[in-house]
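Re: Re: ligand-bound prediction request (bumping)

Still looking for help on this. To restate: I need the protein modeled with trimethylamine oxide bound, output as structure tokens. Inputs repeated here so nobody has to scroll up.
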Amino acid sequence: MLKTLIKVAAIVSVLVISPIAKAADPIRIPVLNWSSQIVMANVMAQVFEEMGHTVELVPAESASRYEAVRIGDLHVAHETWESTMAIPFYEAMDKGGLIDAGSHDLITFEEMGIPNWVIDDGLCPGLPSWEALKSPDCAKNFATADSEGKGRWLEGPQEWHGDVMPNRLKGLGIDGLWTVKFAGSASALWAELEAAKKEGRGTVIFNWSPNFTDAAGFTFIDFPPYFEGCRLENGGTLETTGCGSPKGWLKKAAYIKFPLTHPDAYKFYTKMAFNAPQIGEMANNVDNLGMSHADAATAFIANHRAQIDLWKN
Ligand code: TMO
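Reply:
Sorry for the wait, this slipped through. Here it is.
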């Protein structure tokens, strides 16, 4: 009796469950730890659901995400920033399984910088030129309880760029005056801006564009120009690793089978190309207006419905 039941259940599951499971294979979208990336993940999730797909938002890390796309654990990496993610992106493509699904409609920049009031208050005369950072009188205005008397740079999470910024300080020969601490998340960077302002001390943080801060009065520091190979991880030396960040693209990566398993969703994904104000709007909805990521995505879609619908067809 029991055997028969198991047999029947097995047959039923083959007949009924597996075709459904196949049709409902969810589209897996990575969720990282900065607002525009998370809001864009939610925008895609809501649009794919409108198209009849099921979606899974999967917590992921910046660099390891490309191997996950390559083997199909994720279907997309929808915010791939050239200056910090090009290497794992191209490595996964070289191994096979990850494809380039096009670029967003903008130029990106990721760099250390200061809120404009740091300049206006004269906390480090000569900024935004990096040469101003060579002054001990400047550095001491940027000290914090955890910086051993040095000026502090607050980098993003170490998972984003490893030791690019500590190597930058060494390459510039100013690691005796400045030290790098890593934030736990993007929101810790914005909290630092508020804390420094309240305490009247200088602050240097990692930031990027497009972002909500584009409209909020933020200046990137001018470092020696970037050139191919200047960073240590690209074959550079201590002589060259003081170079600044490159301007770059913002690409969309996809699992090679995504166009076959979800053709309509893949077509939307290839057409989906946000511009700089739109990425800023996604971040602003969360970081200034305090919306949840899902609500920020719903508001964004409502605000750009005609364009979204054009990409859906
Ligand atoms: C990748 N990021 C935009 C946080 O620099």
